[in-house]
Amino acid sequence: MTAGTADARSAALDAYIARRAAQGFRVETRSGAQAVIVRRHRLYFVLRWFAHGMAEQRLVVSVDQHGEVASLAAEPLRW
Fold first, then answer.
1. pLDDT tens digits for 21-30?
2. What residue spans define the domains of the chain?
3. Which H/E stretch holds residue 11?
């Protein structure tokens, strides 16, 4: 992978994360071509005890070598 390809992948990931940040997501972890982003429900502290699956939304976001961004639901954190 060339430096230009890595820069393009990182730029595509930055743009996607910026769009999702406007929707309330924050970055949990990040590398050059992959990130885990999380959005907590506003009633997170109540829902985590009664409906953990609804308390937060976690996504794994990755960028392929062509700059295409894909996101998949991530496993919830285990307590």
1. 998 888 999 9
2. 3-73
3. helix 3-21
